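Can anyone check this?
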Amino acid sequence: MKRLVALLCAMLMLTSAIACGKAEPADTTVATTTAAPDATTAATEATTPAETEPPKAFDTVPAQNLGGDFHILYSTTDQSLADFEAETQNGDIKNDLIFARNTMVEEKLGIDVKLSPMGYTDLNAECQRQVQAGGDDYDMFGGHRNSLVLSYQGFHYNLLDIDTLNLDQEWWDQNYVDAITINDALYTVIGDIGVSTLLFVSSLTFNKKLMDEQNMAYPYDLVREGKWTMDALLTMTADYGTDLNGDGILTRDNDRLAMVGWSTESGYSLFYGSGFAFINRDAMGDPVLEYDSDKLVNVLEKTLEIWLRDNVFIFTDATSGTEHQKTYGVFGEGRALFSDIVLSKIGTFYTSMEDDYGILPCPKYSEDQTNYSAYLGYTIPILFLPSNVPDPERNGTIMEALCTASYDNVTPQMYEIVTKLKNVRDEDSSEMIEIIIRNKVIDTAHFYNVQGYGTIPRDVIVNKTGNIASTLKSYERVAVKQWEKILDNFDKLG
Protein backbone atom coordinates (compact mmCIF):
# COMPACT_ATOMS: atom_id res chain seq x y z
CA MET A 1 0.00 0.00 0.00
CA LYS A 2 2.87 2.37 0.73
CA ARG A 3 4.14 1.98 -2.81
CA LEU A 4 0.59 2.46 -4.10
CA VAL A 5 0.30 5.78 -2.32
CA ALA A 6 3.78 6.77 -3.43
CA LEU A 7 2.86 6.05 -7.03
CA LEU A 8 -0.34 8.03 -6.68
CA CYS A 9 1.54 10.95 -5.15
CA ALA A 10 4.00 10.87 -8.02
CA MET A 11 1.22 10.92 -10.58
CA LEU A 12 -0.61 13.69 -8.81
CA MET A 13 2.45 15.83 -9.35
CA LEU A 14 2.64 15.21 -13.09
CA THR A 15 1.23 18.60 -13.96
CA SER A 16 3.65 20.39 -11.68
CA ALA A 17 7.10 21.45 -12.82
CA ILE A 18 9.80 18.97 -11.89
CA ALA A 19 12.86 20.60 -10.44
CA CYS A 20 16.02 18.60 -10.85
CA GLY A 21 19.05 19.25 -8.70
CA LYS A 22 22.27 19.82 -10.60
CA ALA A 23 25.25 17.61 -9.95
CA GLU A 24 28.27 19.16 -8.29
CA PRO A 25 30.86 20.25 -10.89
CA ALA A 26 33.80 17.93 -11.34
CA ASP A 27 37.03 18.88 -9.58
CA THR A 28 39.38 20.06 -12.35
CA THR A 29 42.40 20.63 -10.10
CA VAL A 30 45.45 18.82 -11.46
CA ALA A 31 47.55 17.10 -8.81
CA THR A 32 51.31 17.44 -9.06
CA THR A 33 51.78 13.77 -8.32
CA THR A 34 49.42 10.90 -8.99
CA ALA A 35 49.70 7.68 -7.08
CA ALA A 36 49.26 4.44 -8.92
CA PRO A 37 45.84 2.94 -8.24
CA ASP A 38 45.69 0.22 -5.63
CA ALA A 39 45.27 -3.14 -7.36
CA THR A 40 42.53 -4.28 -5.04
CA THR A 41 40.58 -1.05 -5.46
CA ALA A 42 40.91 -1.22 -9.24
CA ALA A 43 39.70 -4.80 -9.29
CA THR A 44 36.76 -3.95 -7.08
CA GLU A 45 35.76 -1.01 -9.25
CA ALA A 46 36.01 -3.16 -12.34
CA THR A 47 33.72 -5.85 -10.96
CA THR A 48 31.17 -3.66 -9.14
CA PRO A 49 27.96 -3.65 -11.19
CA ALA A 50 26.37 -0.36 -12.10
CA GLU A 51 23.43 0.70 -9.97
CA THR A 52 20.22 -0.89 -11.17
CA GLU A 53 16.57 -0.37 -10.36
CA PRO A 54 15.18 -2.66 -7.67
CA PRO A 55 13.43 -5.73 -9.08
CA LYS A 56 9.78 -5.32 -9.93
CA ALA A 57 7.14 -7.26 -8.02
CA PHE A 58 6.49 -9.42 -11.09
CA ASP A 59 10.16 -10.47 -11.03
CA THR A 60 9.56 -12.29 -7.74
CA VAL A 61 7.51 -14.91 -9.59
CA PRO A 62 9.85 -17.43 -11.30
CA ALA A 63 9.31 -18.11 -14.99
CA GLN A 64 8.08 -21.66 -15.55
CA ASN A 65 5.91 -23.74 -17.84
CA LEU A 66 2.84 -24.65 -15.80
CA GLY A 67 0.81 -25.44 -18.89
CA GLY A 68 -2.94 -25.63 -19.39
CA ASP A 69 -5.74 -23.18 -18.73
CA PHE A 70 -6.38 -21.06 -15.66
CA HIS A 71 -10.15 -20.76 -15.61
CA ILE A 72 -11.66 -17.92 -13.58
CA LEU A 73 -15.36 -17.66 -12.67
CA TYR A 74 -15.91 -13.98 -11.95
CA SER A 75 -18.69 -11.77 -10.63
CA THR A 76 -20.58 -9.60 -13.10
CA THR A 77 -21.43 -7.03 -10.39
CA ASP A 78 -20.61 -3.37 -11.13
CA GLN A 79 -18.69 -4.11 -14.35
CA SER A 80 -16.10 -6.09 -12.41
CA LEU A 81 -15.36 -8.28 -15.42
CA ALA A 82 -13.08 -5.50 -16.66
CA ASP A 83 -10.57 -6.76 -14.06
CA PHE A 84 -9.82 -9.66 -16.44
CA GLU A 85 -11.91 -9.29 -19.59
CA ALA A 86 -9.73 -8.19 -22.49
CA GLU A 87 -9.84 -10.46 -25.52
CA THR A 88 -7.60 -8.23 -27.62
CA GLN A 89 -6.20 -4.71 -27.74
CA ASN A 90 -8.85 -2.22 -28.83
CA GLY A 91 -7.43 1.19 -27.99
CA ASP A 92 -9.27 1.56 -24.69
CA ILE A 93 -6.53 2.19 -22.13
CA LYS A 94 -8.01 0.07 -19.35
CA ASN A 95 -8.73 -2.84 -21.70
CA ASP A 96 -5.25 -2.70 -23.19
CA LEU A 97 -3.59 -2.63 -19.77
CA ILE A 98 -5.52 -5.72 -18.67
CA PHE A 99 -4.78 -7.45 -21.99
CA ALA A 100 -1.05 -6.73 -21.55
CA ARG A 101 -1.15 -7.93 -17.93
CA ASN A 102 -2.87 -11.19 -18.86
CA THR A 103 -0.44 -11.73 -21.74
CA MET A 104 2.61 -11.17 -19.51
CA VAL A 105 1.40 -13.83 -17.09
CA GLU A 106 0.42 -16.28 -19.81
CA GLU A 107 3.82 -16.03 -21.48
CA LYS A 108 5.81 -16.22 -18.25
CA LEU A 109 3.94 -19.26 -16.91
CA GLY A 110 2.95 -21.02 -20.13
CA ILE A 111 -0.79 -20.88 -19.44
CA ASP A 112 -3.99 -19.51 -20.95
CA VAL A 113 -6.20 -17.31 -18.77
CA LYS A 114 -9.89 -18.05 -19.36
CA LEU A 115 -12.75 -15.96 -17.94
CA SER A 116 -16.39 -16.86 -17.38
CA PRO A 117 -18.98 -14.38 -16.04
CA MET A 118 -21.66 -15.20 -13.47
CA GLY A 119 -23.83 -13.41 -10.91
CA TYR A 120 -22.41 -13.82 -7.41
CA THR A 121 -25.34 -15.88 -6.06
CA ASP A 122 -24.97 -18.48 -8.81
CA LEU A 123 -21.19 -18.22 -8.50
CA ASN A 124 -21.33 -19.24 -4.84
CA ALA A 125 -23.59 -22.16 -5.71
CA GLU A 126 -21.16 -23.21 -8.45
CA CYS A 127 -18.28 -23.28 -5.98
CA GLN A 128 -20.31 -25.50 -3.64
CA ARG A 129 -21.30 -27.79 -6.50
CA GLN A 130 -17.72 -28.10 -7.71
CA VAL A 131 -16.41 -29.04 -4.27
CA GLN A 132 -19.21 -31.48 -3.53
CA ALA A 133 -18.89 -33.14 -6.93
CA GLY A 134 -15.09 -33.26 -6.77
CA GLY A 135 -14.83 -31.26 -9.97
CA ASP A 136 -12.18 -28.86 -11.19
CA ASP A 137 -13.98 -26.70 -13.75
CA TYR A 138 -12.77 -23.41 -12.24
CA ASP A 139 -9.37 -22.64 -10.78
CA MET A 140 -10.25 -19.33 -9.10
CA PHE A 141 -13.47 -17.55 -8.17
CA GLY A 142 -14.12 -13.83 -7.90
CA GLY A 143 -17.20 -13.55 -5.72
CA HIS A 144 -18.75 -11.03 -3.35
CA ARG A 145 -19.06 -10.26 0.34
CA ASN A 146 -21.77 -12.94 0.53
CA SER A 147 -19.16 -15.48 -0.61
CA LEU A 148 -17.47 -15.31 2.79
CA VAL A 149 -20.13 -17.57 4.31
CA LEU A 150 -18.57 -20.39 2.26
CA SER A 151 -15.27 -19.83 4.06
CA TYR A 152 -16.49 -21.20 7.39
CA GLN A 153 -18.60 -23.87 5.72
CA GLY A 154 -15.52 -25.60 4.32
CA PHE A 155 -15.83 -24.64 0.64
CA HIS A 156 -12.74 -22.40 0.43
CA TYR A 157 -9.05 -23.30 0.58
CA ASN A 158 -6.88 -21.66 3.26
CA LEU A 159 -4.71 -19.28 1.25
CA LEU A 160 -2.19 -18.99 4.09
CA ASP A 161 -1.23 -22.64 3.43
CA ILE A 162 -0.03 -21.81 -0.10
CA ASP A 163 3.71 -21.08 -0.19
CA THR A 164 3.59 -19.45 -3.62
CA LEU A 165 1.28 -16.68 -2.35
CA ASN A 166 3.10 -13.83 -0.60
CA LEU A 167 0.10 -12.47 1.26
CA ASP A 168 2.16 -10.19 3.49
CA GLN A 169 3.19 -8.09 0.48
CA GLU A 170 1.59 -4.77 -0.36
CA TRP A 171 0.13 -5.92 -3.68
CA TRP A 172 -2.37 -7.85 -1.52
CA ASP A 173 -4.64 -5.57 0.52
CA GLN A 174 -3.22 -5.75 4.05
CA ASN A 175 -6.27 -4.09 5.64
CA TYR A 176 -8.40 -6.89 4.23
CA VAL A 177 -5.94 -9.60 5.27
CA ASP A 178 -5.89 -8.26 8.84
CA ALA A 179 -9.68 -7.95 9.07
CA ILE A 180 -10.65 -11.26 7.51
CA THR A 181 -8.02 -13.64 8.94
CA ILE A 182 -9.47 -15.83 11.72
CA ASN A 183 -7.67 -18.66 13.54
CA ASP A 184 -4.62 -18.24 11.32
CA ALA A 185 -6.80 -18.96 8.31
CA LEU A 186 -7.55 -16.69 5.36
CA TYR A 187 -9.95 -18.06 2.79
CA THR A 188 -10.55 -14.96 0.68
CA VAL A 189 -8.37 -12.07 -0.45
CA ILE A 190 -8.34 -8.87 -2.49
CA GLY A 191 -5.51 -6.83 -3.96
CA ASP A 192 -4.09 -5.13 -7.03
CA ILE A 193 -5.17 -8.13 -9.08
CA GLY A 194 -8.57 -6.38 -9.34
CA VAL A 195 -8.82 -2.73 -10.35
CA SER A 196 -12.40 -2.60 -9.06
CA THR A 197 -11.22 -3.39 -5.53
CA LEU A 198 -8.98 -0.32 -5.65
CA LEU A 199 -11.58 2.17 -6.82
CA PHE A 200 -14.86 1.10 -5.23
CA VAL A 201 -14.15 3.45 -2.31
CA SER A 202 -16.50 6.07 -0.89
CA SER A 203 -16.02 9.79 -1.40
CA LEU A 204 -18.01 13.02 -1.59
CA THR A 205 -18.15 15.38 -4.55
CA PHE A 206 -19.21 19.01 -4.30
CA ASN A 207 -20.39 21.51 -6.92
CA LYS A 208 -18.02 24.48 -7.04
CA LYS A 209 -20.42 26.73 -8.92
CA LEU A 210 -23.16 26.27 -6.33
CA MET A 211 -20.71 26.91 -3.51
CA ASP A 212 -19.49 30.07 -5.21
CA GLU A 213 -23.08 31.29 -5.46
CA GLN A 214 -23.43 30.88 -1.68
CA ASN A 215 -20.00 32.41 -0.97
CA MET A 216 -18.93 29.14 0.64
CA ALA A 217 -15.26 28.22 0.95
CA TYR A 218 -14.36 24.91 -0.65
CA PRO A 219 -13.83 22.35 2.16
CA TYR A 220 -10.27 21.40 1.14
CA ASP A 221 -8.65 23.32 3.99
CA LEU A 222 -11.07 21.81 6.49
CA VAL A 223 -9.85 18.40 5.36
CA ARG A 224 -6.20 19.39 5.70
CA GLU A 225 -6.77 20.84 9.15
CA GLY A 226 -8.61 17.73 10.36
CA LYS A 227 -11.83 19.74 10.73
CA TRP A 228 -13.88 18.13 7.97
CA THR A 229 -16.49 16.46 10.20
CA MET A 230 -20.13 15.39 10.07
CA ASP A 231 -21.03 18.61 11.85
CA ALA A 232 -19.15 20.64 9.24
CA LEU A 233 -21.10 18.86 6.50
CA LEU A 234 -24.37 19.50 8.36
CA THR A 235 -23.53 23.19 8.68
CA MET A 236 -22.84 23.54 4.95
CA THR A 237 -26.02 21.73 3.93
CA ALA A 238 -28.47 22.61 6.70
CA ASP A 239 -30.39 25.37 4.94
CA TYR A 240 -29.49 24.54 1.36
CA GLY A 241 -32.11 23.67 -1.24
CA THR A 242 -34.31 25.42 -3.77
CA ASP A 243 -37.89 24.58 -4.74
CA LEU A 244 -37.34 25.19 -8.43
CA ASN A 245 -40.86 24.23 -9.57
CA GLY A 246 -42.63 26.01 -6.70
CA ASP A 247 -44.73 23.05 -5.50
CA GLY A 248 -43.70 23.51 -1.88
CA ILE A 249 -41.58 20.35 -1.56
CA LEU A 250 -38.03 19.41 -2.50
CA THR A 251 -37.78 16.39 -4.80
CA ARG A 252 -35.06 14.59 -6.70
CA ASP A 253 -36.62 15.09 -10.11
CA ASN A 254 -37.39 18.81 -10.02
CA ASP A 255 -35.45 20.77 -7.41
CA ARG A 256 -32.05 21.76 -6.09
CA LEU A 257 -30.89 19.61 -3.14
CA ALA A 258 -28.17 19.64 -0.51
CA MET A 259 -26.93 16.08 -1.18
CA VAL A 260 -27.77 12.87 -3.02
CA GLY A 261 -26.67 9.27 -2.52
CA TRP A 262 -27.32 5.62 -3.30
CA SER A 263 -28.08 3.54 -0.20
CA THR A 264 -26.18 0.36 -1.00
CA GLU A 265 -23.05 2.54 -0.86
CA SER A 266 -24.06 5.78 0.84
CA GLY A 267 -25.88 3.80 3.51
CA TYR A 268 -22.46 2.82 4.81
CA SER A 269 -20.07 5.56 3.72
CA LEU A 270 -20.73 8.26 6.33
CA PHE A 271 -21.06 5.67 9.09
CA TYR A 272 -17.72 4.01 8.33
CA GLY A 273 -16.22 7.43 7.70
CA SER A 274 -16.28 7.64 11.50
CA GLY A 275 -13.70 4.86 11.68
CA PHE A 276 -16.14 2.65 13.60
CA ALA A 277 -15.74 -1.14 13.64
CA PHE A 278 -17.89 -3.70 15.44
CA ILE A 279 -15.12 -6.30 15.58
CA ASN A 280 -11.63 -5.47 16.81
CA ARG A 281 -8.52 -7.41 17.79
CA ASP A 282 -7.85 -8.20 21.45
CA ALA A 283 -4.42 -8.32 23.13
CA MET A 284 -3.85 -11.80 21.71
CA GLY A 285 -4.71 -10.66 18.20
CA ASP A 286 -8.02 -12.53 18.09
CA PRO A 287 -11.11 -10.88 16.56
CA VAL A 288 -13.70 -10.02 19.20
CA LEU A 289 -17.13 -8.46 18.96
CA GLU A 290 -16.27 -5.47 21.13
CA TYR A 291 -16.94 -1.77 20.58
CA ASP A 292 -17.90 1.54 22.20
CA SER A 293 -21.71 1.40 22.50
CA ASP A 294 -22.11 5.10 23.17
CA LYS A 295 -20.06 6.02 20.12
CA LEU A 296 -22.11 3.62 18.00
CA VAL A 297 -25.35 5.33 19.00
CA ASN A 298 -23.88 8.78 18.43
CA VAL A 299 -22.48 7.93 14.99
CA LEU A 300 -25.75 6.35 13.85
CA GLU A 301 -27.76 9.32 15.09
CA LYS A 302 -25.47 11.74 13.29
CA THR A 303 -25.64 9.66 10.09
CA LEU A 304 -29.43 9.71 10.27
CA GLU A 305 -29.46 13.42 10.95
CA ILE A 306 -27.58 14.00 7.70
CA TRP A 307 -29.59 11.69 5.48
CA LEU A 308 -33.15 11.98 6.79
CA ARG A 309 -33.71 15.65 5.98
CA ASP A 310 -36.10 17.10 3.45
CA ASN A 311 -33.30 18.73 1.44
CA VAL A 312 -31.36 15.52 0.73
CA PHE A 313 -32.19 12.43 -1.29
CA ILE A 314 -30.88 8.90 -0.84
CA PHE A 315 -32.28 6.17 -3.05
CA THR A 316 -33.13 3.22 -0.80
CA ASP A 317 -34.67 0.57 -3.09
CA ALA A 318 -31.78 -1.87 -3.41
CA THR A 319 -33.73 -3.98 -5.90
CA SER A 320 -33.71 -1.25 -8.52
CA GLY A 321 -30.62 -0.76 -10.62
CA THR A 322 -32.30 1.57 -13.09
CA GLU A 323 -32.32 4.64 -10.86
CA HIS A 324 -28.58 5.31 -10.74
CA GLN A 325 -28.65 7.86 -13.51
CA LYS A 326 -31.67 9.67 -12.07
CA THR A 327 -30.12 9.88 -8.60
CA TYR A 328 -26.61 10.91 -9.58
CA GLY A 329 -28.06 12.95 -12.42
CA VAL A 330 -29.22 15.48 -9.81
CA PHE A 331 -25.59 16.31 -9.10
CA GLY A 332 -24.50 15.91 -12.71
CA GLU A 333 -27.12 18.43 -13.82
CA GLY A 334 -25.91 20.97 -11.25
CA ARG A 335 -28.87 20.52 -8.89
CA ALA A 336 -27.07 19.21 -5.77
CA LEU A 337 -24.43 20.76 -3.58
CA PHE A 338 -22.90 17.37 -2.64
CA SER A 339 -23.09 13.78 -3.77
CA ASP A 340 -21.96 10.68 -1.90
CA ILE A 341 -20.40 8.36 -4.50
CA VAL A 342 -17.65 5.79 -4.90
CA LEU A 343 -14.59 6.87 -6.88
CA SER A 344 -15.15 4.43 -9.73
CA LYS A 345 -18.60 5.87 -10.47
CA ILE A 346 -17.50 9.49 -10.68
CA GLY A 347 -16.14 8.79 -14.14
CA THR A 348 -19.36 7.03 -15.09
CA PHE A 349 -21.76 9.78 -14.08
CA TYR A 350 -19.85 13.08 -13.99
CA THR A 351 -17.33 13.02 -16.84
CA SER A 352 -19.48 15.26 -19.05
CA MET A 353 -20.74 17.47 -16.21
CA GLU A 354 -20.60 21.15 -17.15
CA ASP A 355 -20.11 22.58 -13.64
CA ASP A 356 -16.72 22.13 -12.03
CA TYR A 357 -16.69 19.84 -9.03
CA GLY A 358 -14.28 18.83 -6.31
CA ILE A 359 -13.67 15.50 -4.54
CA LEU A 360 -13.45 15.03 -0.77
CA PRO A 361 -13.07 12.19 1.71
CA CYS A 362 -16.13 11.36 3.77
CA PRO A 363 -16.11 13.47 6.93
CA LYS A 364 -14.84 12.34 10.31
CA TYR A 365 -17.31 11.86 13.14
CA SER A 366 -15.43 14.49 15.15
CA GLU A 367 -12.11 16.33 15.14
CA ASP A 368 -10.83 13.89 17.79
CA GLN A 369 -10.79 11.14 15.16
CA THR A 370 -7.18 10.53 14.11
CA ASN A 371 -7.64 9.72 10.41
CA TYR A 372 -10.26 10.02 7.72
CA SER A 373 -11.77 6.64 6.87
CA ALA A 374 -13.03 5.48 3.49
CA TYR A 375 -15.63 2.73 3.18
CA LEU A 376 -14.70 -0.07 0.77
CA GLY A 377 -17.85 -1.20 -1.02
CA TYR A 378 -19.05 -4.74 -0.43
CA THR A 379 -19.71 -5.49 -4.11
CA ILE A 380 -15.98 -5.69 -4.86
CA PRO A 381 -14.91 -9.08 -6.28
CA ILE A 382 -13.41 -11.22 -3.52
CA LEU A 383 -11.03 -13.95 -4.63
CA PHE A 384 -11.02 -17.53 -3.37
CA LEU A 385 -10.06 -21.07 -4.37
CA PRO A 386 -12.33 -24.11 -3.97
CA SER A 387 -11.34 -26.26 -1.00
CA ASN A 388 -10.71 -29.26 -3.30
CA VAL A 389 -8.24 -27.40 -5.51
CA PRO A 390 -5.98 -30.13 -6.96
CA ASP A 391 -2.76 -28.10 -7.08
CA PRO A 392 -2.85 -25.14 -4.65
CA GLU A 393 0.77 -24.14 -5.33
CA ARG A 394 0.12 -23.86 -9.08
CA ASN A 395 -2.97 -21.73 -8.49
CA GLY A 396 -1.06 -19.63 -5.97
CA THR A 397 1.73 -19.00 -8.46
CA ILE A 398 -0.73 -17.77 -11.08
CA MET A 399 -2.63 -15.58 -8.61
CA GLU A 400 0.66 -14.09 -7.41
CA ALA A 401 1.76 -13.44 -10.99
CA LEU A 402 -1.51 -11.71 -11.88
CA CYS A 403 -1.38 -9.58 -8.74
CA THR A 404 2.28 -8.56 -9.06
CA ALA A 405 1.90 -7.78 -12.76
CA SER A 406 -1.08 -5.58 -11.90
CA TYR A 407 0.87 -3.89 -9.12
CA ASP A 408 3.73 -3.05 -11.49
CA ASN A 409 1.89 -2.17 -14.67
CA VAL A 410 -1.86 -1.71 -14.20
CA THR A 411 -2.38 0.01 -10.86
CA PRO A 412 -0.15 3.05 -11.51
CA GLN A 413 -1.77 3.64 -14.88
CA MET A 414 -5.29 3.10 -13.63
CA TYR A 415 -4.90 5.66 -10.89
CA GLU A 416 -3.80 8.18 -13.46
CA ILE A 417 -6.62 7.31 -15.83
CA VAL A 418 -9.50 7.00 -13.42
CA THR A 419 -8.63 9.48 -10.72
CA LYS A 420 -6.66 12.02 -12.70
CA LEU A 421 -7.67 12.40 -16.33
CA LYS A 422 -11.35 11.48 -16.16
CA ASN A 423 -12.47 12.57 -12.74
CA VAL A 424 -10.19 15.13 -11.15
CA ARG A 425 -10.47 18.74 -12.23
CA ASP A 426 -8.02 20.29 -9.76
CA GLU A 427 -4.89 19.38 -7.83
CA ASP A 428 -6.73 19.79 -4.53
CA SER A 429 -9.00 16.90 -5.48
CA SER A 430 -5.96 14.81 -6.38
CA GLU A 431 -4.65 15.40 -2.88
CA MET A 432 -8.03 14.42 -1.43
CA ILE A 433 -8.07 11.19 -3.43
CA GLU A 434 -4.71 10.29 -1.95
CA ILE A 435 -6.26 10.64 1.51
CA ILE A 436 -9.23 8.49 0.49
CA ILE A 437 -7.12 5.68 -0.97
CA ARG A 438 -4.74 5.68 1.96
CA ASN A 439 -7.48 5.31 4.56
CA LYS A 440 -9.68 2.45 3.37
CA VAL A 441 -11.43 0.74 6.28
CA ILE A 442 -12.71 -2.84 6.45
CA ASP A 443 -15.02 -3.93 9.26
CA THR A 444 -14.94 -7.68 9.89
CA ALA A 445 -18.62 -7.75 10.91
CA HIS A 446 -19.64 -6.02 7.70
CA PHE A 447 -17.71 -8.33 5.38
CA TYR A 448 -18.67 -11.52 7.21
CA ASN A 449 -22.21 -10.06 7.13
CA VAL A 450 -22.84 -10.70 10.80
CA GLN A 451 -26.61 -10.55 11.08
CA GLY A 452 -27.75 -7.11 12.18
CA TYR A 453 -24.33 -5.55 12.58
CA GLY A 454 -23.36 -6.32 9.00
CA THR A 455 -26.03 -4.00 7.62
CA ILE A 456 -27.25 -1.77 10.46
CA PRO A 457 -26.04 1.61 9.09
CA ARG A 458 -28.03 1.12 5.91
CA ASP A 459 -30.97 -0.47 7.73
CA VAL A 460 -31.58 2.51 9.98
CA ILE A 461 -31.55 4.85 6.98
CA VAL A 462 -33.85 2.72 4.84
CA ASN A 463 -36.27 2.12 7.73
CA LYS A 464 -35.98 5.72 9.03
CA THR A 465 -35.42 4.28 12.48
CA GLY A 466 -36.30 6.63 15.32
CA ASN A 467 -35.11 4.91 18.49
CA ILE A 468 -31.52 3.91 17.78
CA ALA A 469 -30.86 2.41 21.22
CA SER A 470 -33.82 0.00 21.05
CA THR A 471 -32.94 -0.99 17.50
CA LEU A 472 -29.39 -1.80 18.56
CA LYS A 473 -30.63 -3.87 21.46
CA SER A 474 -32.81 -5.94 19.15
CA TYR A 475 -29.84 -6.49 16.83
CA GLU A 476 -27.28 -7.24 19.52
CA ARG A 477 -28.58 -10.63 20.66
CA VAL A 478 -28.75 -11.97 17.11
CA ALA A 479 -25.34 -10.55 16.15
CA VAL A 480 -23.56 -11.99 19.19
CA LYS A 481 -25.10 -15.40 18.59
CA GLN A 482 -24.16 -15.47 14.92
CA TRP A 483 -20.59 -14.27 15.54
CA GLU A 484 -20.12 -17.06 18.10
CA LYS A 485 -21.44 -19.54 15.54
CA ILE A 486 -19.03 -18.24 12.90
CA LEU A 487 -16.09 -18.61 15.29
CA ASP A 488 -17.23 -22.13 16.24
CA ASN A 489 -17.29 -23.07 12.56
CA PHE A 490 -13.76 -21.74 12.10
CA ASP A 491 -12.64 -23.75 15.13
CA LYS A 492 -14.09 -26.92 13.60
CA LEU A 493 -12.18 -26.31 10.39
CA GLY A 494 -9.02 -26.29 12.47
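Reply from J.R.: I decoded it. Residues 1-51 have pLDDT under 50 and may be disordered.
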